[in-house]
Fold this sequence. Notes:
Elements lengths: L17 H4 L4 E5 L1 H5 L3 H10 L2 E4 L5 H4 E3 L2 E2 L2 H13 L2 E4 L3 E2 L5 H4 L5 H19 L11 E8 L4 H5 L1 H6 L3 H12 L4 E6 L6 H16 L6 E4 L2 E3 L5 H12 L4 E10 L11 H21 L5 E6 L9 H4 L18 H10 L2
Parallel strand pairs: 1-2, 1-12, 2-5, 5-7, 6-7, 7-8, 8-9, 9-11, 10-11, 11-12
Antiparallel strand pairs: 3-4
The protein binds (3S,4R)-3-hydroxy-2-oxopiperidin-4-yl beta-D-xylopyranoside.
Amino acid sequence: MDSKPSVQNPVITPSATLKESASFPIGNIVSANRLSGSDNYFRTLLNKEFNSITAENDMKMAAMFVGPNTYDFSKGDAIVAYAKANGFRVHGHALIWHASIPNWLKNYSGTDVEFEAQVEGYVKATVAHFAEAKTTTGESVVASWDVVNEHFTNDAEAAVFYNRIGPDYLSKCFTWAREADPDVKLFYNDYSLGSNTEKATKVTNMVTDFKNNAIPIDGIGMQMHVDYQYPDLTTLTSNVTLLKNTGLLIHFSELDMTVNKDKSLNSLTSQRSNAQKERYKNIASLYTNTIPEEQQFGITFWGMRDNDSWLLNFTNNPNEWPLLFDSGYNYKQAFIGFLEGLNN
Ligand code: XIL
């Protein structure tokens, strides 16, 4: 439903917008369809509060790489055009991800050498294509790419990139992306980096290895699909510290927050809402205070309204309220908490 129910009690009216309160870009996800659809509330809120956008799905491999040497950039182009017209930065997501491989490539019958040539061609064509749109001051609208998403998982090791190109597919993809655009920021993106120290260490080891071998990398995306209680702030802070000590840019790239994992609630109680507010506050202030300004790439939320969230499907729970706005586009306490965190 895209109409705006007006019920909210009490009405929450923030004293400032996110983008004017943060010293770094604040992002959200979009789709080409939604940007051109009839839902004005979405665009109004997006333009008011945010200054960075990521395609939720439209700039993934399965959406763009439609056949051998064949690309469909139309939805990405629509997103970039919107960004250009409305002053947003675009963060590209994601060139290589085991969960978004087009079937024809998954089942590719050519040799491994031919397979690798397809992937190389795709990375280079995509990065080069999206480097074309420039702002009025001459910078690329698409400032950055998640080059590889979620490598440190069993699924990725089982996927075709690893199996057909080899363990160095990672460094090859970063190198190809850099060859296609000398300026775009190149990110490695993954989940659980705030909770799983072993995994975060694998990422820092990868960065060291890249640096030792002159492989380009500019940033680390911590997805930040968190829970209102987990991970604890101490672990989160120490993992953020570990990752920022690489000296790379740090992006909280997919922030959202489950509050009802045990499915005990069937509405967001004021008690749970306050716990979520406090937690969003802590995360905003952690990012602001732990990461040096020159390494602050930004914080991107993975969704606008609670009922837009991918988590409802993913956790198979319609009673989740992970985001800053309720289903009627009303500001939640979570928003106020996050805003407060940005300011201290
Ligand atoms: C999710 C989208 O939100 C869903 O619409 C889609 O069905 C699956 O992908 N980690 C990522 C994101 O890096 O790309 C995922 O997005 C969420 C988990």
